[in-house]
From TrEMBL:
<feature type="signal peptide">
    <location>
        <begin position="1"/>
        <end position="20"/>
    </location>
</feature>
<keyword id="KW-0479">Metal-binding</keyword>
<dbReference type="GO" id="GO:0046872">
    <property type="term" value="F:metal ion binding"/>
</dbReference>
<dbReference type="InterPro" id="IPR011707">
    <property type="entry name" value="Cu-oxidase-like_N"/>
</dbReference>
<dbReference type="Pfam" id="PF07732">
    <property type="entry name" value="Cu-oxidase_3"/>
</dbReference>
<comment type="similarity">
    <text>Belongs to the multicopper oxidase family.</text>
</comment>
<dbReference type="InterPro" id="IPR008972">
    <property type="entry name" value="Cupredoxin"/>
</dbReference>
<feature type="domain" description="Plastocyanin-like">
    <location>
        <begin position="32"/>
        <end position="131"/>
    </location>
</feature>
<keyword id="KW-0560">Oxidoreductase</keyword>
<dbReference type="GO" id="GO:0016491">
    <property type="term" value="F:oxidoreductase activity"/>
</dbReference>
<dbReference type="InterPro" id="IPR045087">
    <property type="entry name" value="Cu-oxidase_fam"/>
</dbReference>
<keyword id="KW-0186">Copper</keyword>
<protein>
    <recommendedName>
        <fullName>Plastocyanin-like domain-containing protein</fullName>
    </recommendedName>
</protein>
<keyword id="KW-0732">Signal</keyword>
Length: 132
């Protein structure tokens, strides 16, 4: 009976892992100015993107800070995974440095991310995560 249960657990683990995906993103966060010299924050030259995932996916976001000031990104209501590869925490990313965030898309719903700094948030560093 124990062998059967162990075998079933292994099969279940393989099926669960087969359905999950790794979604890698590389973000270059920087300031830009419009024709009126109003500064805003962009990710890879565009407004903050919406991340789309499926339940069970692992979202991996490498954030490179080109702002010339510290940056803290807060991930709202989605589980962060911290390990050797995923070193992103709610700590400042110094200018010129990068960190990697790993997020577990365990449940369906709409979540968000944003800069901790109100000035950076108002300049456009905020977006959504949609898990289907």
């Amino acid at each position: 009976m124990r062998k059967l249960i162990s075998w079933l657990l292994c099969v279940f683990a393989i099926v669960v892992l087969a359905d999950s995906r790794l979604l890698p993103f590389g973000w270059d966060v920087e300031k830009m100015a419009d024709s009126k010299h109003v500064q805003f924050i962009v990710i890879n030259g565009n407004p903050a993107p919406t991340i789309r995932a499926q339940q069970g996916d692992t979202i991996v976001v490498q954030v490179r800070n080109h702002l010339g000031e510290d940056l803290v990104i807060v991930w709202q209501a989605i589980e962060k995974v911290i390990n050797r590869q995923c070193n992103g925490a709610d700590q400042p990313i110094p200018a010129g440095q990068a960190v990697t965030y790993c997020l577990a898309a365990k449940q369906a719903g709409e979540f968000s991310y944003q800069a901790l700094s109100k000035l950076q948030r108002d300049a456009g560093l905020k977006g959504s995560i949609v898990v289907l």
